[in-house]
């Protein structure tokens, strides 16, 4: 645990007046306030630091204690005084809100010196909404293809969620009430889950359409025939048209990815043909290709 | 049945110790919507989180209503740009892995 220089955090010197502290705090709060920096963990961390600094320096008693014992916080007397202070302390009237309020948001330094988080020293029974939690869930393409249930452990609690088919990579869903616990009977925060969907080795996804590149032998490409393609939903037998060109595409309508929260609707499955030229020709094959070539130029 | 999801303005203001005129100012700028049932003003619980954010911006950070309006507009724009980035990233990923 290291000493925290609250003056440095607020960018003021030790002679700062309460007005200077308030001004410095407001200025930094406007910069780092979580309401103005949604989903920015660095801003949140900075805001917690300036909040803590303000909590100490804007309170004359805490400031005095900090100035007197701050650098020697390990001194036993500080703990005794902190304990005594904690018992006597009443609400200092600062305005707090849910996202910065939960336990653990104050440094260990603060808690050692002032005996617990600021919330613990407040007698005013104000209800605060719990903190919102953010989590990332990794899925493969096949798992994202079907609506399924998963059990997650969030802060030691197991919750079972339904993941709708068609979820996008990077998409965030909200699970209401599964964030941090509300304070003084306030509502719980929400849980936000962002999905990270791994690429499939063979099938690429773009929104609701799926794409593959499939090999086609030269003979089937020239003469036409049948080929079996594996989609995410099983095998499909396809008719290949004669004289199919390399790089040409065919679309299997409705065989793509499910549309998110739109049951029964699917994107398309698009196949791009790569025509494979035969190698290691036998003498007979070479002769026939030569004959074919001569025919081409003679017609 | 609908009123189950509504919170009276009076209750909200008393809870946050704020004047009802602040809520009215937010309504006038279109930042929130107030539902009136039998002459009593209510806010939908869906707007609660947003409204509490406005309260914090106004009272904690000294940002006036015009500032809140601007911030809200810019945050919406950031959200929409982030969504666009997400779509473009997915598209880029498609081409990168196709190489």
Give a quick precis of the structure.
With 299 residues, chain A is an alpha+beta fold. Helices cover 31% and strands 23% of the residues of chain A. Residues 85-104 and 117-124 of chain A have low confidence and may be disordered.
Structure description:
The complex is a heterodimer of chains A (299) and B (99). With 299 residues, chain A is of the alpha+beta class. Chain A folds into three domains: 6-121, Helix Hairpins (Orthogonal Bundle); 133-197, Urease metallochaperone UreE, N-terminal domain (HSP40/DNAj peptide-binding domain), CATH 2.60.260; 204-298, HSP40/DNAj peptide-binding domain. Chain A contains nine helices and eleven strands. Chain A has helices spanning 6-10, 18-32, 41-57, 60-69, 76-88, 108-114, 141-145, 218-223, 283-298; strands at residues 133-139, 148-154, 157-163, 172-175, 191-197, 204-206, 209-217, 225-231, 234-240, 249-252, 269-276. In chain A, the strands form four sheets. Chain A has a four-stranded mixed sheet. In chain A, helix 2 runs antiparallel to helix 3 (41-57). The longest helix of chain A has 17 residues, at 41-57. Chain A is elongated and about 100 Å long. Chain B is α+β, with helices and mostly antiparallel strands and 99 residues long. Chain B has a single domain (2-98), classed as Orthogonal Bundle (Multidrug-efflux Transporter Regulator, Chain: A, Domain 2), CATH 1.10.1660. Helix content of chain B is 64%, strand content 12%. Chain B has helices spanning 9-16, 20-28, 48-59, 65-98; strands at residues 6-8, 34-37, 40-44. In chain B, strands 1-3-2 form a three-stranded antiparallel sheet. Chain B is elongated. The model of chain B has no long low-confidence stretch (mean pLDDT 87). Chain A binds chain B through residues 26, 29-30, 33, 35-36, 38, 95, 97, 127, 129, 168-171, 199, 204-207, 211, and chain B through 15, 49, 52-53, 56-57, 59-63, 71, 75, 78, 86-87, 89-91, 93-94, 97-98.
């Amino acid at each position: 645990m290291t000493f925290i220089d609250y003056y440095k955090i607020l960018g003021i010197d030790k002679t700062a007046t309460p007005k200077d502290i308030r001004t410095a705090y407001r200025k930094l709060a406007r910069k780092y306030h979580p309401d103005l920096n949604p989903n920015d963990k660095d801003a949140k961390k900075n805001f917690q630091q300036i909040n803590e600094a303000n909590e100490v320096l804007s309170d004359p008693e805490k400031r005095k204690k900090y100035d007197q014992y701050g650098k020697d916080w390990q001194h036993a007397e500080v703990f005794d005084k902190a304990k005594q202070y904690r018992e006597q302390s009443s609400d200092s009237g600062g305005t707090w809100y849910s996202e910065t309020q939960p336990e653990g948001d104050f440094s260990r330094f603060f808690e050692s010196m002032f005996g617990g988080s600021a919330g613990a020293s407040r007698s005013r029974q104000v209800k605060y909404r719990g903190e919102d939690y953010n989590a990332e869930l990794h899925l493969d393409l096949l798992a994202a293809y079907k609506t399924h249930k998963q059990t997650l452990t969030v802060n030691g609690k197991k919750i079972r969620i339904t993941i709708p088919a068609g979820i996008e990579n990077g998409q965030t869903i909200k699970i209401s009430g599964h964030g941090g616990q509300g304070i003084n009977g306030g509502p719980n925060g929400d849980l936000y889950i962002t999905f990270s969907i791994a690429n499939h080795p063979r099938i690429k996804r773009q929104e609701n359409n799926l794409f593959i590149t499939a090999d086609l032998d030269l003979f089937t490409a020239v003469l036409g025939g049948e080929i079996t393609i594996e989609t995410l939903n099983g095998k499909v037998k396809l008719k290949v048209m004669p004289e199919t060109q390399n790089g040409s595409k065919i679309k299997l309508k409705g065989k793509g990815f499910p549309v998110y929260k739109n049951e029964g609707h699917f994107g398309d499955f698009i196949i791009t043909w790569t025509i494979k030229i035969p190698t290691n020709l036998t003498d007979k094959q070479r002769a026939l290709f030569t004959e074919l070539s001569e025919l081409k130029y003679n017609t | 049945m609908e009123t189950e999801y509504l919170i009276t303005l009076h209750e909200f203001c008393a809870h946050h110790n704020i004047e009802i005129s602040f809520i009215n100012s937010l309504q006038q700028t279109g930042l929130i919507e107030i539902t009136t049932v039998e002459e009593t003003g209510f806010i939908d619980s869906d707007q609660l989180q947003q409204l509490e954010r406005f309260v914090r911006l106004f009272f904690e950070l000294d940002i006036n209503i015009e500032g809140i309006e601007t911030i809200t507009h810019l945050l919406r724009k950031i959200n929409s740009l982030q969504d666009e980035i997400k779509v473009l990233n997915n598209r880029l990923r498609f081409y990168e892995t196709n190489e």
